[in-house]
Amino acid sequence: MKKFLPWIILVALIIVVALLPKPLEISPTVSVIVTVLLGLALTGVLVMTMRGHLIGRRTVFLFIGASLTLPFFMNFQMPIKVAPEVQELYDAIAKLPPGSKVLAAFDYDPPSAPELQPQAEAFMAYAFKHDLKVIIMGLWPQGPQQADMAIQKVLQQPAIRAKNIKYGVDYVNLGFQSGNEFVIQRMGSSFRGMFPRDIYNTDCDKIPILNGVDNFSNIDFVFNLSSGYPGTVEWVQIAVDRYGVKLGAGNTAVQAPSVYPYLSSHKLTGLAGGMSGAWQFEQATGEPGVASTYVLPQTFSHMVVIGFIIIGNVALFVGYRKSRQEGV
Amino acid sequence: MDSAIIGTWLAALLTLGIMSFLYKDNLYYKICEAIFIGISAGLWFITYFWDSLYRIAWIGVVHEGRYVLLGGVVLGVMMLMRLFGKIGWIARWPLAFIVGATAGLKMMVYFTTNAMAQIHGTVNDTMAAFGGSGLYDVVGRIVILIGTVTGLVYFYFSKEHKGLFGGVAKVGTWFLMITFGASFGYTVMSRMSLLLGRIDFLLTDWLKLVK
Amino acid sequence: MKREIPLIITFVAGVAFVLQYFIPHYPFNRFENLFSDWFSIVGAFAIWLGALSLIKLCLLNISKKAHDWPISLLIIVCFLAIVVAGAIDGFNGLKNVPTTSFRDPGTNFDWLYQNVYTPLSATMFAILAFFVASASYRAFRARNTAATLLLLSAFFVMIGRVPIGDYLSAWLPPSWQLSQWANWLMAFPNTAGQRAVMIGIALGTVSTSLRIILGIERAHLEG
Question: Are B108 and C17 in contact (CB under 8 A)?
Answer without folding.
Answer: yes
